[in-house]
Amino acid sequence: MDVSYASRVRQTLAVTGDGGAPKVIRTERKVRFGDLNVLCPGWPVDFRFSASLEEPAAEPPPGSTVRNRREKDRLSYKSGCLSVDITTVHMTEGSSPNGPETMSQEVEVEVDGEVVDLHEEVKAYREAGGRVGRGGERLLEIAAELVATLRALAAVAGEAMGTSPAWATAEQRP
Q: Burial letters for 74-102: b for 16+ Cβ neighbours within 10 Å, e otherwise?
């Protein structure tokens, strides 16, 4: 479960089924550098590309205002240099656990920092002037792997919802 505070600090808590008290796993602040929202009319999904950094943060002071609580049921996969999280989220606004709840499904695809140092790959690409054959090709390979994974996930979502985009027929699937 994640608990977000008005101070933009988020705590991740481990919740067990035995009714014990939740335990704080980490406290962090997410610094978002920017988003690119891609709307896909006629598709069962839209995309958001985000560049963010999650950094350790101090514990919120006692009595801090809770913005929301997000309880998550997550499946995680790793493929190549990517990690994929498929999550059902039950979110409660405010500090009361009995407040109005919303439910959503989220799919998050990230470049796995344990496999690839994305900062170094971007640096190599820039040093090569963006030219293939002069270094930095790995960044293009990562981008191609990311796009192929997103297309495959969109096609699966479309099949599940009965609304596959035209390019996602069995013969054209990535």
A: eeeeeeebbbbeeeeeebbeeeeeeeeee
Q: Give CA angle at 35 (33, 38), nearest 5°.
A: 165
Task: Please state, rounded to an integer, the average pLDDT across all residues of the chain.
Answer: 84
* Residue 120, in any domain of the structure: yes
Q: Which of 12, 58, 53, 2 is nearest to 32 (CA)?
A: 53
Chain position carrying tokens 């959503």 = 104
Average pLDDT over residues 144-160: 86
Question: How many independent structural domains does the chain possess?
Answer: 1
Q: Is residue 127 pLDDT above 80, yes or no?
A: yes
Instruction: Classify strands 9-14 and 2-5 as parallel, antiparallel or unpaired.
Output: antiparallel
Measured distance CA(13)–CA(1) in Å, rounded: 5
Report the residue count for the chain.
174
In a domain, 173, yes or no: no
